[in-house]
Amino acid sequence: MKRLINKAIVNKDHNFGNARWVRNIFEKTLEIQANRLAMDGHISNKSLTTITEYDIMNKTD
Fold first, then answer.
1. Most buried by CB count within 10 Å: which residue of 10, 37, 38, 42?
2. pLDDT digits (tens, 9 = 90+) for 1-53
3. Closest listed residue to residue 5, CA positions, set 28, 25, 31
4. What confidence score (pLDDT) does residue 60 get?
5. 28 close to 59: Cβ distance less than 8 angstroms
6. SS3 8
């Protein structure tokens, strides 16, 4: 997540809004996590509280 945020800051334009962007990334990450868990079928307390690199990096821009 830190790499993703740093990349966004380096490549920002005049329309970039930090808080809105982070909120959107977080919401999309949770959506991807939920879809991943649904496909896996094995849902545990640990998996519900774990966000993977896949969840963060497989968002759509």
1. 37
2. 888 888 888 888 887 777 888 898 899 999 999 999 999 888 899 999 999 99
3. 25
4. 55
5. yes
6. helix
